[in-house]
Amino acid sequence: MCQQPEPTTKAAKKQNSILTNAMMVFAKEGFRNTDVQIIADLAGVGKGTVYRHFGNKEQLFLATAKFCVERMSDYARRKVLQDQEIPNLIEANGVPQLLRKIMLACAEYYQKHPQSIEIMIQERAEFRESVYPTHLMFREENRSGLDGIMQAGIDRGELRAINVMQASDAFTDLLFGCMISGCLQGQKGKLVERVESAIDLLLNGLVATDQPSKT
Amino acid sequence: MCQQPEPTTKAAKKQNSILTNAMMVFAKEGFRNTDVQIIADLAGVGKGTVYRHFGNKEQLFLATAKFCVERMSDYARRKVLQDQEIPNLIEANGVPQLLRKIMLACAEYYQKHPQSIEIMIQERAEFRESVYPTHLMFREENRSGLDGIMQAGIDRGELRAINVMQASDAFTDLLFGCMISGCLQGQKGKLVERVESAIDLLLNGLVATDQPSKT
Amino acid sequence: MCQQPEPTTKAAKKQNSILTNAMMVFAKEGFRNTDVQIIADLAGVGKGTVYRHFGNKEQLFLATAKFCVERMSDYARRKVLQDQEIPNLIEANGVPQLLRKIMLACAEYYQKHPQSIEIMIQERAEFRESVYPTHLMFREENRSGLDGIMQAGIDRGELRAINVMQASDAFTDLLFGCMISGCLQGQKGKLVERVESAIDLLLNGLVATDQPSKT
Amino acid sequence: MCQQPEPTTKAAKKQNSILTNAMMVFAKEGFRNTDVQIIADLAGVGKGTVYRHFGNKEQLFLATAKFCVERMSDYARRKVLQDQEIPNLIEANGVPQLLRKIMLACAEYYQKHPQSIEIMIQERAEFRESVYPTHLMFREENRSGLDGIMQAGIDRGELRAINVMQASDAFTDLLFGCMISGCLQGQKGKLVERVESAIDLLLNGLVATDQPSKT
DNA sequence: CATGAATGAGTTTTCATTCAT
DNA sequence: TATGAATGAAAACTCATTCAT
Question: Which of C42, C198, D118, D187 sits most deeply, having the most CB atoms within 10 A of its CB?
């Protein structure tokens, strides 16, 4: 389960090999530090072939970033949905638990593939506003999903009557922050743990709930 | 109030001018994309002078990052403390409010100086684990302060009996995430707003507190 | 006769062209004074091509030095041997005459190609002990030949019972000295003459042979 | 005995210190590789002072070369003459022995101060024909002396009736060759030995003197 | 006179991109 | 279609020389 489907055509296999190796090298060396020749060598193709397939280094990188996000997305979707529909999952888990599962699924993927984190950072660092970052596009696409789940949580009385968009942002920002700052100093292996703790705090809050009585 | 003290000696002024311009250019172009010549030109000095002062491009960048973090730190300290002691502030504001103020002070600085955010991202992207990132060192230095405030909050019954280290991490990760993902697409001007909303959610939680009664 | 065989493949021709021009420029300007761009321009290739073929300036220079020594070696070998075996030559000429011919063949080459002398000096000046100089390697390879001829001379009663290694050294040192100090002030055209005179003196000695009778 | 007289005035001492350190650095690093700053630092003066005294790097180097040759010359003169006149020395030693002593005195100096050899090579490599090399000027100045001694040797029947100029050249060329090629591979300590053997061969010749009997 | 900070011309080297085979 | 040799623009860095203090 949770395996990537293998590409079938020969051309697709070659593309896949290039992207896989590009991911490794870009993650290890950074975008500017990466020599396309190295990627071509690792993929076992000529440099010209890389350019034929992806146009230029920038597009190769962006394709790599997209590749990473899609793999993450696939992984999380399979992991969370497991062939069920969102409403069923809400019913079965309750919204808070479902939100937790979604975040943890993402964290799990990134913990297994820390290269994806590097790619994401490289993309942000190199392309800033000039290219709409792949992972933000991913977030945008999935925002409505997250927003919908949150709204359901409010409707079901499981969540406070918060602003769903702000809450979605807080969720993803928190995930981001954990990934970027938390994966240094050998902490890469503890990403899931860190995200879990952070999400629990976000769900339940830091302030003592019997606080009002104090007033 | 909240102004940087100006450097007095001539040499310090020159260093300051180089760093200020370096900050602008590195933030705009990214580390690898920056030609040191441009910084020298903007600072009104020869390229040799830049190298004389900072050794090489890498050290120039790291000095710039340190410069940014120190300015942020000074700003937040002045803004939050206002010549008072932490215990007094806790007494006067309560812990949740104080935590809010600290985060907002940081957010305010970064909203005013979005270049600092870029510098931070560039540092992470370029130097990864090889150099202990300046902003993480800053965080490390200040962690004990944040931890202490949280502990006081628990002792005072204002915060739940959470793990203070995890909570500190969650706070800073959230701030990070907001800065990095939120400052795109013209949202740089809304950083404070975004952080404010996120911190409120983290403080109060998403889950409805009267939830148990529903069961 | 005594012509270099031309390289056949296209790649070899290009390498040859680069080396030939490198020899000219290095000899004229010196190693440190030479801009690789100039060599590339003269060879009619891009600078990148030069680096592609030779790695860096240092290796380009060392390849040039090797190129020079090999050409000299080929020239001298063809000139002296003329398709005969050493023993035959000894028989036909006698050892002193053969030694003379060898030295003169080398001198002839250097007189025709004074650039080779410059390259040799540059190599010694720039790389000192760090790289085992090309021409010393050449000497080492050919020492045994020279030693053998000398030993034959002693055996045949043509040479005094000298130490053959010391004598070989003296021969080559003398050639060296003539080349380096003698090729200044327009004396380059007289190298053969100078070597010839010096070798004759070395062969026959300066001291009057009827000297003993004076005692 | 054989000590350099110390400079007396303050300015002269400073010049001397600069030259001594320049000799060390130029010999170790080569002319182009040497940073004038290093020399200034070692001499304990400002870089400006070096330029004030010597004009530019080239002139500093040439002054250093001159300094080296003069020290060598002084050393050899003191060592050979020992307060006597040339005619007396000829009378006392005979010409062949005197020539030997002269060469060995030079060799001794260079063996003690191999840096001087490097300086000589650097000068030749860097300045070629453009500047009349210091050591060749030295040779020119002393040629008449050597020529005179040789002529005396011929007149006294100690030397064959050779061409004295050619013989002088052969002597110095041989010394040169020994110095330049012989002082590699840790052989610097054996320079005197090598020169001694070479000079003996040059004096006595390689060809067997009873050769005529063979006819 | 002495100093050493400032300068910028000059060089090496890399690597994205092209295009002839 | 695939290749990889060729290219040259671009950038980091050095250091001889100057000159204000």
Answer: C198
